[in-house]
Design goal:
seven-stranded mixed β-sheet; 5 helices; globular; Aminopeptidase; alpha+beta; single chain
Length: about 140
C-alpha cells in the first residue's frame, strides 16, 4: 500500500471511496458536510491544503486530508481506511502524512471525531493533540505545530 498526494484524475475514485466508507458506517451523503468531495482540487489543493490517497493494487484503500481554515490554522479530516485494511498501520501512516504536511504549512492543526472512535482518539492524543471540548458525541482537538 502506498500513499500519494491527490491528483485530479483520482478525484472520482477518492470521492466514491469516502462516500462508500461513510455509507458502510450508516451515513448518507450530506450536502452540508460532504460537498468538499465534489471538487477536491478546489476545496483542498487550491486553498493550500492537501489530500492523500492510499492505493493497493490500483484500488483506493485509504484517504486523509488537510483543509486550510484560515489564520495559519488547518483542519485534519477525511481520514478513512477500508475495513479490510484496518489494523495494519495504514490509518497511522495516513495520519502521519497529513500531520507532516500540516507541520510544513501551518502553526496549528484542529480535528474532530466521534467519541466512539477510541482508537482514533488514542492516536490523536499520542501525537500531541489536546481535547478542547466534547459536544453531543463529537470531540474537538487541537495541536500547536
Amino acid at each position: 500500500m502506498n500513499i500519494v498526494p491527490f491528483s485530479p484524475e483520482c478525484s472520482f475514485r477518492a470521492r466514491s471511496f469516502v462516500l462508500g466508507v461513510l455509507s458502510e458506517e450508516g451515513f448518507d451523503y450530506d450536502p452540508l458536510k460532504d460537498s468538499d468531495l465534489d471538487d477536491i482540487e478546489s476545496n483542498y489543493i487550491r486553498k493550500g491544503g492537501g489530500f492523500f490517497i492510499s492505493f493497493d493494487n490500483g484500488e483506493v484503500v485509504g484517504t486523509s486530508a488537510v483543509r486550510n481554515i484560515g489564520s495559519d490554522i488547518c483542519e485534519i479530516k477525511r481520514l478513512y481506511v477500508k475495513k479490510e485494511c484496518r489494523g495494519k498501520g495504514l490509518g497511522l501512516a495516513l495520519f502521519k502524512a497529513v500531520l507532516e504536511f500540516a507541520k510544513q504549512n501551518y502553526s496549528c492543526a484542529r480535528l474532530k471525531t466521534d467519541s466512539s472512535l477510541k482508537k482514533a482518539i488514542s492516536m490523536y492524543l499520542q501525537h500531541g493533540f489536546v481535547l478542547l471540548k466534547e459536544d453531543n458525541g463529537t470531540m474537538y482537538f487541537e495541536k500547536s505545530l
